[in-house]
Amino acid sequence: MIKIIVDTLGGDRSPYANIEGAVTALNKIEDLKIVLVGHEADIKKELENKKYDEARLEILNADDEITCNDKPTEAIRTKKESSLYKAIELLRTDETCGGLVTTGSTGALLAGAVLRVGRIKGVKRPAFCPIIPTMNQSVVGLCDSGANVDCDSLQLSQFALMGSLYMELAHGIKNPRVALLNVGVEAEKGDMLRKEVYEILSNDERINFVGNMEAREFISGDCDLVVADGFSGNVLLKSTEGACLNMLGMFKGVFFKNLKTKLATALLKKDIYEVKDYMDYNNYGGAVLLGASKTIVKGHGSSKATSVFHCIEQAYNMEKSGLRSKIAEAFQKN
Amino acid sequence: MIKIIVDTLGGDRSPYANIEGAVTALNKIEDLKIVLVGHEADIKKELENKKYDEARLEILNADDEITCNDKPTEAIRTKKESSLYKAIELLRTDETCGGLVTTGSTGALLAGAVLRVGRIKGVKRPAFCPIIPTMNQSVVGLCDSGANVDCDSLQLSQFALMGSLYMELAHGIKNPRVALLNVGVEAEKGDMLRKEVYEILSNDERINFVGNMEAREFISGDCDLVVADGFSGNVLLKSTEGACLNMLGMFKGVFFKNLKTKLATALLKKDIYEVKDYMDYNNYGGAVLLGASKTIVKGHGSSKATSVFHCIEQAYNMEKSGLRSKIAEAFQKN
């Protein structure tokens, strides 16, 4: 049995989406236990008309919430009645709890993970690794997407190793192709940091390093994991998201411009929705925090129930695959 | 009379697109002189059937070409018969030549500009500033987009000042809104470099600093100039370009999927082409190298004649507006 904690507060659609996502997960995955953390009365009311195996669901009451208006590090230190604080404390102290899923504050989660949950031995700093759909119907991981804005070459090479294990074990990609985000593809491109990392990754036999990658190729599907410092990784992730959303918006403007275009769009509807669905992060999991000593998945702040379900499924898969111990093993040899 | 040098070699559509673009520019701009640099015989043959004011066109023969296979710095030092080397030498030595337009190697151009042409007094390092169309029918400048992968706070604050003057003088945007690329909007976000730059820009009265900007908002139109180090600026530019092209590709797949979708697409054709045209860099100028002691415009490697024309027009506008002396003036007071 795998036990995952689900924070029901902090997201735009909390607690409803989080609770519904948890119930879906319980119904789809047999050997899964869930602990819902949040306002107990609200949770119970929401659960009233839902069908699920009650023996596999626990509730931990938390009266307070960390919001996006709170200063992350301060909030995780002082808001001890918040759902996120209580969830992290439970994750830290209860050996039977393997993972945590939240759609709340990224900063508070990161602070809590680093300060309270701790790292796998040998890992310098945990890093966020979201997965993004590619143009060839696959996905690409990005590590780090923003946990560490200042990085050295050891950290980047660790992101490569952890990310590679994650893509292989949790996403079933054999011998994942790992690329380094850079300003050009040639080996000598980039700053001193990139040159150092290029050298390290080229000589690490545990990693299938395919060389430098320009940001233009991020979603082309030519590699399975992109390694970046948290600053440029964050720029890569957010600009891709922004450009895709803006392009969808422009086409929407075309489709609904007038009666003629609306008629034409009706004929294209099914295929356009396929593109839209394909780009929708709700159909994928969240960003995992690799290197933390427990499994941690951060869902998008505006996650719907489907997205929360996928995040729980992702945490379950990570636990089931033994990813944490595989990372620990790899870093013991480091 | 403003004299601009046009390198006719080095681009994917060279020399034809470059020559045609130059002829268009001569016909549209009365007080413009052009020097075409490249294979004289080829240029003369290409000009044979074109109508233009011959008194305003010169040719400088160059038998060699710097290609993307050459190592940039080495090429600009050794390939002394190349069109780009000769163009840069002419720009450096001929006081009547104000600017240079090329669609050739970015690296060789940068090396040549820094090593041969030199900087405006007080400018630490020149920086590339391309302009990108935004969702609200305007444009946004990005400085630096890749000339300097390692930057300090003085450089970034200089990019802000040069870029601001450029957007105002060459693009007619009064009091341009300048934003700093960062991982979050709050003042305390980012690494030490970003915090230092935030402080400097907040206190510089010559700059209309609107604060930090996340990569997601790059093409939203909320600001007129984005300031970045060359590494993350390059990531921002290329990932935006890649995501937009990939989205266009996905929609193209929908539009031409089958007979039904093709019929529907026929009805949308005009509006779709408007979006495509709007996103097409050929309809905008190139990336200018701000801070060099002469005007330098780098067009896209696959530039068509229209794009070359826009690059020449851009170089002309920069010279006409006195941008170089305005930057020199601002840096004298620095």
- Using the alpha-carbon principal axes, give the shape of chain A: globular
Which CATH first-tier class of the largest domain in chain A would you pick? Alpha Beta
Distance separating the two termini of chain A: 31 Å
Query: What is the CATH fold-level name of the largest domain in chain A?
Result: Isopropylmalate Dehydrogenase
CATH architecture of the largest domain in chain A: 3-Layer(aba) Sandwich
CATH superfamily of the largest domain in chain A: Isopropylmalate Dehydrogenase
Radius of gyration of chain A from CA coordinates: 20 Å
Which regions of chain A have little confidence, pLDDT < 50, spanning 5+ residues?
Answer: none
- Described by its quaternary structure, the protein is homodimer
Q: Helix tally of chain A?
A: 11
Beta-strand portion of chain A reads 15-25%
What integer is the average pLDDT of chain A? 94
Task: Report the order of strands and helices of chain A.
Answer: EHEHEHHEHEEEHEHEEHHEEHH
Number of separate strands of chain A: 12
Instruction: Tell me the count of domains of chain A.
Output: 2
Largest sheet: spatial strand order of chain A:
3-2-1-4-12-11-5
